[in-house]
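Reminder to self: keep the SMILES exactly as supplied, no canonicalising. Ligand is flavin-adenine dinucleotide.
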Amino acid sequence: MSAPDAIVIGAGPAGLAAAQRLGASGLKSVIYEKAEAVGSVWRRHYDRLHLHTPRAHSALPGLPMPASFGRYPSRTQFIDYLQGYAKKFDLQPVFNTPVRSVRRDGSRWRIEAGEISATTPIVIVATGWADFPNVPKWPGIETFDGPILHSSAYRNGSAYAGQHVLVVGFGNSGAEIALDLCESGAEATLSVRSPVRILPRDLFGLPILSFAIAQRFLPARIADAINAPFIRLAVGSIERLGMKQAEKGPIRMIEEDGRVPVLDVGTVAKIREGKIKVRGAIASFARSGVVFAEGEPAPFDAVVLATGFKPDLRALLPDAKGVLDAAGRPLVSDKSTAEPGLYFVGAIASPSGQIRQIGVGATRIAEVARRFLRDESSVASPR
Ligand SMILES: Cc1cc2nc3c(=O)[nH]c(=O)nc-3n(C[C@H](O)[C@H](O)[C@H](O)COP(=O)(O)OP(=O)(O)OC[C@H]3O[C@@H](n4cnc5c(N)ncnc54)[C@H](O)[C@@H]3O)c2cc1C
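Structure tokens returned for the bound complex:
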């Protein structure tokens, strides 16, 4: 192949969609992927995972998912889909090739990846955030006797039957892992520190995401105000379950804080039945359990940290200026950055669903990249 117009880093949904859209815009790209297959992060997610967003709004550009996948495709169906996607569009990532750094090299970018050192005018960073599990440090955590694992390392509840397991954090992973543990015969307790937003996955028989998509041009405050009574009706009082409602509505929460509300798949009912317990924040760990901030200790055999991710791309992009915040998160995604030729796809949460947004973002970046190359070449060879 002649020199590519762009290098895409990562062969997850965002990298595949970006390469597909570049190809559709007439640009050649090469994908560098550190794992040995596409969708590597989905291959590692917990066994029972299904998409929380419906099939109809979770396909990547150019290839719908088959109706046989049902409304909420399973993890394995989604992996099959990503494989089929790469095949259909002849995307052939260079596997086992972790990109170490992306640096400025004149008007181009220099990529160091494995044995490869290559330059390119366009780099699309589609590395996701799975490499950056957030593991808080509580006093005494090193003294705890049992296993402590991050949610990204949890597969299923089979090893925990009959055990007391603490799940820390009530996002989508924490909520579903607590449910999985409960259904596997463990005594699951959720530690919920912050106020939360819980949405039913379906409302009036339709995926809740359809409402968010239909309302995407409304200001977040107005959309949240319209939806509030229906959500309250569907979810009921969460204060009675020992949790506090977040002050911001779900759409504001995503847009302003990048926090995704919980799309409930059965956890709330188990809490209501008393089969999953809810406690507050953890103050410290002890050898055989934790001490909650309200004061009393509780014994646990194992702890799952569903405490999210803290992406930090400073090591990957050591000299990019004005594209990352102080913690190393991209300031913008799916549009031009402060660095010409450097783009992110899928790096910021969207109320309309992350995978759907990946498709929108990839299409936009392909167009931005095409224009950028056209403008560059007209500067390089003026008439
Ligand atoms: C448990 C879970 C469930 C989710 N469910 C949904 C859902 O139902 N609907 C939805 O819309 N969104 C969902 N999301 C959010 C999001 O859509 C997914 O995380 C999605 O996989 C993000 O795609 P991505 O390509 O940006 O990142 P990833 O899927 O994480 O892929 C990134 C790829 O980049 C590679 N990579 C990373 N660093 C490098 C490097 N330096 N060099 C080379 N390769 C590298 C990785 O190996 C990986 O293959 C979910 C997220 C999680 C964690």
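Points to follow up:
Residues 9-15, 32-35, 40-41, 45, 49, 51-53, 58, 98-99, 126-128, 130-131, 173, 316, 346, 353-355 surround flavin-adenine dinucleotide (CB under 6 Å).
The radius of gyration is 22 Å.
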